[in-house]
Amino acid sequence: MELTVHLACGYLHGQTDLGEQRCHCQPRLKWQRGDIAELRQLCPSCLSAPAGGPSRWSVLVCRRCWLENRAKYHLPLARHSIANAILLEANAGSAEVAKFQEAILGMFDIQRRLGEWRRVHLERLLAHAGFEAVAEMPEYLVHLLARLHLPPPEEAVLALAAWLREGGPIAADW
Ligand SMILES: [Zn+2]
Ligand SMILES: [Zn+2]
Protein backbone atom coordinates (compact mmCIF):
# COMPACT_ATOMS: atom_id res chain seq x y z
CA MET A 1 0.00 0.00 0.00
CA GLU A 2 1.63 3.22 -1.17
CA LEU A 3 2.07 6.09 1.26
CA THR A 4 3.44 9.58 0.74
CA VAL A 5 6.20 11.32 2.71
CA HIS A 6 5.36 14.83 3.88
CA LEU A 7 8.79 16.40 3.82
CA ALA A 8 8.07 19.20 6.32
CA CYS A 9 7.59 16.69 9.15
CA GLY A 10 9.15 13.52 7.66
CA TYR A 11 6.11 11.34 8.42
CA LEU A 12 4.00 9.27 6.02
CA HIS A 13 0.36 9.76 5.15
CA GLY A 14 -2.25 8.06 2.97
CA GLN A 15 -4.95 5.41 3.00
CA THR A 16 -4.13 2.06 4.59
CA ASP A 17 -6.11 -1.12 5.33
CA LEU A 18 -6.31 0.02 8.96
CA GLY A 19 -7.59 3.53 8.20
CA GLU A 20 -6.26 6.89 7.09
CA GLN A 21 -2.71 7.47 8.24
CA ARG A 22 -1.91 11.11 8.88
CA CYS A 23 1.47 12.79 9.11
CA HIS A 24 2.44 14.72 12.23
CA CYS A 25 1.23 18.07 10.87
CA GLN A 26 -2.38 16.90 10.72
CA PRO A 27 -4.78 16.35 13.68
CA ARG A 28 -4.47 12.79 15.01
CA LEU A 29 -7.13 10.19 14.20
CA LYS A 30 -8.18 7.31 16.43
CA TRP A 31 -7.89 3.91 14.76
CA GLN A 32 -10.22 0.98 15.34
CA ARG A 33 -7.34 -1.49 15.47
CA GLY A 34 -3.77 -1.27 16.69
CA ASP A 35 -2.20 0.83 19.42
CA ILE A 36 -0.73 3.54 17.18
CA ALA A 37 -2.45 5.24 14.22
CA GLU A 38 0.25 4.38 11.71
CA LEU A 39 0.97 1.50 9.38
CA ARG A 40 4.65 2.37 9.20
CA GLN A 41 7.13 5.28 9.04
CA LEU A 42 10.41 5.94 7.28
CA CYS A 43 13.43 4.51 9.09
CA PRO A 44 14.93 7.70 10.57
CA SER A 45 18.38 6.17 10.46
CA CYS A 46 18.84 4.98 6.85
CA LEU A 47 15.62 6.33 5.17
CA SER A 48 15.76 3.27 2.91
CA ALA A 49 13.29 0.92 4.62
CA PRO A 50 10.11 1.00 6.72
CA ALA A 51 10.07 1.28 10.51
CA GLY A 52 7.44 1.71 13.25
CA GLY A 53 3.97 0.23 12.88
CA PRO A 54 0.58 0.02 14.62
CA SER A 55 1.79 -2.07 17.58
CA ARG A 56 3.14 -0.63 20.83
CA TRP A 57 5.83 -3.31 20.47
CA SER A 58 7.09 -1.96 17.15
CA VAL A 59 10.61 -0.68 16.63
CA LEU A 60 11.29 2.87 15.46
CA VAL A 61 14.09 1.99 13.02
CA CYS A 62 14.16 -0.62 10.23
CA ARG A 63 15.10 -4.23 10.84
CA ARG A 64 18.73 -3.86 9.71
CA CYS A 65 19.29 -0.69 11.76
CA TRP A 66 17.66 -2.38 14.79
CA LEU A 67 19.88 -5.46 14.56
CA GLU A 68 22.96 -3.27 14.25
CA ASN A 69 21.81 -1.18 17.21
CA ARG A 70 21.09 -4.28 19.29
CA ALA A 71 24.52 -5.69 18.55
CA LYS A 72 26.57 -2.55 19.13
CA TYR A 73 24.84 0.53 20.55
CA HIS A 74 21.93 -0.60 22.78
CA LEU A 75 19.93 2.58 22.24
CA PRO A 76 16.23 2.48 23.25
CA LEU A 77 14.87 2.47 19.69
CA ALA A 78 11.86 0.23 20.37
CA ARG A 79 8.64 2.11 21.04
CA HIS A 80 7.92 0.49 24.42
CA SER A 81 10.20 0.71 27.46
CA ILE A 82 9.88 -3.06 28.14
CA ALA A 83 11.13 -3.84 24.64
CA ASN A 84 14.09 -1.60 25.44
CA ALA A 85 14.73 -3.59 28.64
CA ILE A 86 13.93 -0.54 30.81
CA LEU A 87 12.28 -2.30 33.73
CA LEU A 88 11.45 -1.71 37.38
CA GLU A 89 11.33 -4.54 39.94
CA ALA A 90 8.25 -4.71 42.19
CA ASN A 91 10.34 -4.17 45.34
CA ALA A 92 12.60 -1.48 43.89
CA GLY A 93 14.11 1.06 46.26
CA SER A 94 14.24 4.82 45.68
CA ALA A 95 17.62 4.65 43.92
CA GLU A 96 16.25 2.10 41.39
CA VAL A 97 13.09 4.17 40.90
CA ALA A 98 15.18 7.28 40.20
CA LYS A 99 17.35 5.32 37.75
CA PHE A 100 14.24 3.95 36.03
CA GLN A 101 12.72 7.44 35.70
CA GLU A 102 15.93 8.76 34.25
CA ALA A 103 16.04 5.90 31.71
CA ILE A 104 12.40 6.52 30.68
CA LEU A 105 13.00 10.25 30.20
CA GLY A 106 16.17 9.48 28.24
CA MET A 107 14.18 7.08 26.03
CA PHE A 108 11.51 9.71 25.27
CA ASP A 109 14.19 12.28 24.47
CA ILE A 110 15.95 9.89 22.07
CA GLN A 111 12.65 9.02 20.38
CA ARG A 112 11.85 12.72 19.90
CA ARG A 113 15.31 13.36 18.44
CA LEU A 114 14.85 10.53 15.89
CA GLY A 115 12.30 12.77 14.17
CA GLU A 116 14.77 15.65 14.05
CA TRP A 117 17.45 13.41 12.54
CA ARG A 118 15.01 12.11 9.90
CA ARG A 119 13.88 15.61 8.88
CA VAL A 120 17.42 16.92 8.46
CA HIS A 121 18.60 13.87 6.50
CA LEU A 122 15.51 13.84 4.29
CA GLU A 123 16.09 17.48 3.42
CA ARG A 124 19.76 16.84 2.63
CA LEU A 125 19.00 13.71 0.62
CA LEU A 126 16.45 15.48 -1.56
CA ALA A 127 18.64 18.55 -2.06
CA HIS A 128 21.51 16.24 -3.05
CA ALA A 129 19.25 14.39 -5.50
CA GLY A 130 17.92 17.65 -7.01
CA PHE A 131 14.45 17.73 -5.43
CA GLU A 132 14.71 20.92 -3.32
CA ALA A 133 11.30 22.34 -4.17
CA VAL A 134 9.03 19.35 -3.54
CA ALA A 135 6.70 19.15 -0.53
CA GLU A 136 5.67 15.50 -0.88
CA MET A 137 7.27 12.39 -2.31
CA PRO A 138 6.11 8.77 -2.66
CA GLU A 139 7.65 6.56 0.02
CA TYR A 140 9.17 4.13 -2.52
CA LEU A 141 11.01 7.00 -4.21
CA VAL A 142 12.55 8.17 -0.93
CA HIS A 143 13.65 4.56 -0.23
CA LEU A 144 15.19 4.39 -3.69
CA LEU A 145 17.04 7.73 -3.39
CA ALA A 146 18.32 6.75 0.06
CA ARG A 147 19.70 3.46 -1.27
CA LEU A 148 21.43 5.35 -4.08
CA HIS A 149 22.87 8.26 -2.10
CA LEU A 150 23.05 7.46 1.63
CA PRO A 151 25.28 5.06 3.57
CA PRO A 152 23.89 1.53 4.18
CA PRO A 153 22.03 0.87 7.47
CA GLU A 154 25.14 -0.37 9.29
CA GLU A 155 26.90 2.97 8.71
CA ALA A 156 23.77 5.09 9.06
CA VAL A 157 23.02 3.77 12.54
CA LEU A 158 26.64 4.38 13.60
CA ALA A 159 26.26 8.10 12.77
CA LEU A 160 22.83 8.26 14.42
CA ALA A 161 24.09 6.56 17.60
CA ALA A 162 27.04 8.96 17.86
CA TRP A 163 24.74 11.98 17.55
CA LEU A 164 22.17 10.62 20.01
CA ARG A 165 24.91 10.09 22.59
CA GLU A 166 26.85 13.30 22.03
CA GLY A 167 24.00 15.70 21.21
CA GLY A 168 24.67 19.11 19.62
CA PRO A 169 23.86 20.04 16.03
CA ILE A 170 23.72 17.36 13.32
CA ALA A 171 27.07 17.25 11.47
CA ALA A 172 27.03 18.49 7.89
CA ASP A 173 28.48 15.30 6.34
CA TRP A 174 26.90 11.87 6.08
ZN1 LIG B 1 3.48 16.56 7.91
ZN1 LIG C 1 17.23 1.72 8.71
Characterization of this structure:
Strand 1 and strand 2 form a beta hairpin. This protein has a four-stranded antiparallel β-sheet. A two-stranded antiparallel ribbon has the order 4-5. The model has no long low-confidence stretch (mean pLDDT 93). The protein starts with a strand and ends in an 8-residue tail after the last helix. It has four helices and six strands. It has 174 residues and is an alpha+beta fold. Residues 43, 45-46, 49, 61-62, 64-65, 153 line the site of one zinc ion (ZN).
Topology:
Elements: E1 4-6, E2 11-16, E3 19-21, E4 41-42, E5 50-51, H1 63-72, H2 94-128, E6 136-138, H3 139-149, H4 153-166
One zinc ion is lined by residues 6, 8-9, 11, 23-25.
Order of strands across the widest beta sheet? 3-2-1-6
Question: How much strand content do the residues show?
Answer: 5-15%
**Helical content band:** 40-55%
Q: Give, in order, the helices and strands.
A: EEEEEHHEHH
Task: Name its key features.
two-stranded antiparallel sheet, 4-stranded antiparallel beta sheet, 4 helices, binds zinc ion, single chain, 174 residues, alpha+beta
Briefly characterize the structure.
With 174 residues, the protein is of the alpha+beta class. The chain contains four helices and six strands. The mean pLDDT is 93.
